């Protein structure tokens, strides 16, 4: 059969290839022979065979982002175009039972009683949270908003910012305020970036593409998630020429796949690799577990959400490919394989910050995974203060970023004052996708405006002027470990004979 891109096939031609030995499907009017792909499909062969010899577009769109099939299949699998006059779209399979969801979550699935406000009426990060709570599907909201067990760390992350006080200087000329900053040598219009967050397409059909376009418009940097809903190439192509992107890496237990991914990231022009090290085992996110998993998969990692006896936690089910043997000795391998600057994301102690620098990384992200991994882990800002107390030289040896709990311009200013090069912001930008690219741009402008206002009122005109003298941390200083003796390994009891 010809694989000429302009070759047109009838629906009758498609129907003849309808079994596990000869399986064709149509997706968005393109026909593919996927016989040899059945056994390697992450979701299993049975789901594909249900659509053998037919148009699988509707079922495909429920799970995958556009472009994944072209990314996954070699060109020789393409057979031609389905005659548009005969296209038959099957109804979506396994539609959610909305009554069950309402009983499980206590949240109505009806949007009739909620009118989404016009974008210009949103003036804070919290406004985006409120819109997302009322417009996302119950499962998407649970996946995005959930955190580990009792949500203690999740709340601490933001609460600690409120306990750090600013010490403004007055009578200064603050007519202008400069927020631009270089992050790993890449220009950014503000000292914050979009943290990697999985499956952005749950919030908007354009998902990570809208994030990329919003960053292009606003001059910001996006860290693309390893579990993004669009292929890496598609996200980068959605941006503008010379737009800097960083890539978050979960090391795959099948190391060859990670090698391929790192090579691809470099070829596509990614500027740095953020190795996530605080979620080799997903935390127990109970709100996410209580609702059955939606049919979604990652375009980059290939991870698929499903359900099992433990529940429907998308974070847990999609993280099963992550290598649990990852150790410090793997950092040189990642550096050599990628030949890109490496940042370790998930540092939660001074001891590990020092270790990261010893391995020659270009940056560290002080992060507890947004409170989604180990509950009652200390908030990231306390780790930042711990570095000042135990190893202040770190700030001269690599760039330091803080992630988790940032919702206000004052939060950004406080982190900068304590030595952070920039902060990462994740959930709020997912929520902003309820308005697509325009939402991303609007939230960016809100945060920039709050930061500029905070800087002027604090008496500084450039983010580089922020320093420890601008903050009062007395209310939390007693919570900061005093020496390296707090390294738990040193206190480990001797094994009994």
Task: Describe this structure as you would to a colleague.
By secondary structure, this protein is an alpha/beta fold. The chain contains 20 helices and 18 strands. It has helices spanning 11-15, 45-49, 57-63, 68-72, 98-105, 125-135, 138-145, 152-163, 207-218, 232-238, 255-267, 286-289, 314-318, 331-338, 350-358, 380-390, 409-417, 427-432, 436-458, 474-477; strands spanning 8-9, 18-19, 22-27, 30-33, 54-55, 78-82, 165-166, 181-183, 186-188, 192-194, 222-224, 245-249, 272-276, 342-347, 363-366, 399-403, 422-425, 471-472. It has an 8-stranded parallel β-sheet with strand order 10-17-16-15-14-13-12-11. Strands 1, 2, 3, 4, 5 and 6 form a 6-stranded mixed β-sheet that branches. It is globular.
Q: Strands, helices and their partners?
A:
Layout: E1 8-9, H1 11-15, E2 18-19, E3 22-27, E4 30-33, H2 45-49, E5 54-55, H3 57-63, H4 68-72, E6 78-82, H5 98-105, H6 125-135, H7 138-145, H8 152-163, E7 165-166, E8 181-183, E9 186-188, E10 192-194, H9 207-218, E11 222-224, H10 232-238, E12 245-249, H11 255-267, E13 272-276, H12 286-289, H13 314-318, H14 331-338, E14 342-347, H15 350-358, E15 363-366, H16 380-390, E16 399-403, H17 409-417, E17 422-425, H18 427-432, H19 436-458, E18 471-472, H20 474-477
Parallel strand pairs: 1-6, 3-5, 10-17, 11-12, 12-13, 13-14, 14-15, 15-16, 16-17
Antiparallel strand pairs: 2-3, 3-4, 4-6, 7-18, 8-9
Helix pairs in contact: 9-10, 9-19, 17-19
Catalytic activity: (S)-lactate + 2 Fe(III)-[cytochrome c] = 2 Fe(II)-[cytochrome c] + pyruvate + 2 H(+)
Protein name: L-lactate dehydrogenase (cytochrome)
Family: Belongs to the cytochrome b5 family.
């Amino acid at each position: 059969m010809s694989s000429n891109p302009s070759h047109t096939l009838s629906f009758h031609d498609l129907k003849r290839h309808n079994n596990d030995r000869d399986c064709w499907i149509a997706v968005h009017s393109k026909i593919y022979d996927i016989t040899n792909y059945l056994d390697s499909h992450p979701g299993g062969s049975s789901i594909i065979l249900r659509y053998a010899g037919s148009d699988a577009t509707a079922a495909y769109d429920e799970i995958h982002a556009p472009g994944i099939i072209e990314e996954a299949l070699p060109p020789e699998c393409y057979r031609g175009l389905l005659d548009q006059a005969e296209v038959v779209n099957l109804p979506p399979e396994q539609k959610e039972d909305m009554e069950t969801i309402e009983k499980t979550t206590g949240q109505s699935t009806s949007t009739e009683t909620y009118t989404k406000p016009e974008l210009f009426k949103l003036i804070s990060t919290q406004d985006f949270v409120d819109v997302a709570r009322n417009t996302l599907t119950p499962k998407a909201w649970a996946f995005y908003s959930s955190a580990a067990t009792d949500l203690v760390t999740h709340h601490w992350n933001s609460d600690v910012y409120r306990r750090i006080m600013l010490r403004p200087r007055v009578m200064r000329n603050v007519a202008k305020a400069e927020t631009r900053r270089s992050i790993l040598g890449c220009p950014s219009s503000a000292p914050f970036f979009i943290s990697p967050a999985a499956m952005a397409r749950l919030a908007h059909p354009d998902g990570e593409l809208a994030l990329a376009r919003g960053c292009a418009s606003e001059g910001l940097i996006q860290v693309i998630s390893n579990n993004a809903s669009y292929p890496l190439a598609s996200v980068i192509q959605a941006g503008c020429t010379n737009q800097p992107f960083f890539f978050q890496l979960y090391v795959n237990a099948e190391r060859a796949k990670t090698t391929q991914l790192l090579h691809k990231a470099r070829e596509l022009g990614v500027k740095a690799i953020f190795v996530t090290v605080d979620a080799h085992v997903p935390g127990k996110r109970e709100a996410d577990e209580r609702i059955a998993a939606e049919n979604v998969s990652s375009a980059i990692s290939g991870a698929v959400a499903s359900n099992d006896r433990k529940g429907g936690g998308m974070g847990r089910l999609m993280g099963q490919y992550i290598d649990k043997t990852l150790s410090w000795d793997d950092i040189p391998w990642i550096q050599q394989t990628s030949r890109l600057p490496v940042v370790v994301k998930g540092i939660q102690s001074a001891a590990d910050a020092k270790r990261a620098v010893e391995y020659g990384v270009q940056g560290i992200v002080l992060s507890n995974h947004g409170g989604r991994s180990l509950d009652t882990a200390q908030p990231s800002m306390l780790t930042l203060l711990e570095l000042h107390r135990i190893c202040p030289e770190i700030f001269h040896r690599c760039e330091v970023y803080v992630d988790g709990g940032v919702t206000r311009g004052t939060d950004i200013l406080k982190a900068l004052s304590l030595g952070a090069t920039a902060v990462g912001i994740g959930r709020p930008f997912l929520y902003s996708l309820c308005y697509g690219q325009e939402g991303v741009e609007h939230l960016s402008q809100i945060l920039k405006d709050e930061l500029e206002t905070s800087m002027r009122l604090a008496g500084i005109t450039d983010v580089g002027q922020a320093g420890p003298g601008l903050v009062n941390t007395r209310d939390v200083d007693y919570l900061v470990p005093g020496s390296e003796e707090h390294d738990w390994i040193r206190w480990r009891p001797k094994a009994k004979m």
